[in-house]
Here is the input.
Amino acid sequence: MAVDLYSIAIVAVAVVTAGIVGIKTRISSSIFEVGAGVVIANVIGIGIDPWLDFLGTFGGLILTFLAGAEVEFILLRKQARESLGIGTMAFLAPLIGILGVLTIFTDWTWQARLAGGLALTTTSVAVVYAVLSEYELIKTPTAKTIIAVTFVNDILTLIGINFIQTTFDWVTVAFVAVLVALVPIVPRLLRRVVQSFGKRAVEIEVRLVLAVLLVISFFADKASLHAVFGAFVLGLIFASSIQQHQDILSKTRTVTFALLAPAFFIRAGMLIAVPAVIANLALVFGLLGTKLAAKIVGCYGLCKKWIPEAPMFSTMLFSTGLTVGTITATLGHQLGFLSDVQFSVIVTAVILSAVVPTLIAKRFVPTKL
Here is the structure.
């Protein structure tokens, strides 16, 4: 089948436009990429072609991998009590709240409620980094605590993904054993590849990372652990070693944010049905309000104890959500647990949770740190 150059051109222009608008507005370009996807599908009438389906799937996997690879274990150890305490509540409080709202006000299946709840538990690493950088707080001890909490929140969400559909068996056990075996192997393998083939135009190091990612994601799927979970755990395994090779991480980010991540978010936007969102606006805002209220109830008191210089500012940042939330909702849709309408509702609420808490947080930026 011939490739549709028209749809490719439209998506390419949308990617560039979303990036420019994101920079100009200082808002994550991911939000505008999802919006572009909504317009492309609902206004222009372009469908999701196989090439975009592949790039979007790959983009979701590598974004999840990078989320794991960005985790700083030294930071987590230093901030263990605060990060585990606040991060756990930042995960549990909205999950319980969303499950309650969906149980009372909808007839969604258990898997749909769980997928929706998990998608709305997350804290957006990208948004948190952007806000802390914008206000020049990224180097402060407060920022380090906030980032550590964000890691814990998203780790718990990605672990929770596997409970959407639990079908563990001996293959699962074997796969986990392989992951454990990779922990000492990966640093040596990466070091040897860099020494033997590094700093060459063919970029063998980046090819290795992408190849291992796809192989592990495939076997994770076969082991009933879901590909995104395999990608995240692989990122955790790679974290310490790949952070020592910032050039590899930089090149991987370049490939991701130039092509694969925009494809993922545009594809997600193309799955959103505008009529479904309009018909369920009350539910969308109800879910958004529930997430914000649950995060405040669950996190504010702990933030006041452990981040006393910026309790509300921190709580609002923990209320943001975008990448991992969209990935979780997309997985729920791919597994058949979220219908098109349900997916549209959840992703719209996720996107709003990237914007509304950020605007509120700007009113509580700490001035003395």
Q: What stands out?
A: The domain at 5-364 is CATH 1.20.1530.20 (Na+/H+ antiporter like fold). Residues 170-197 form the longest helix (28 residues).
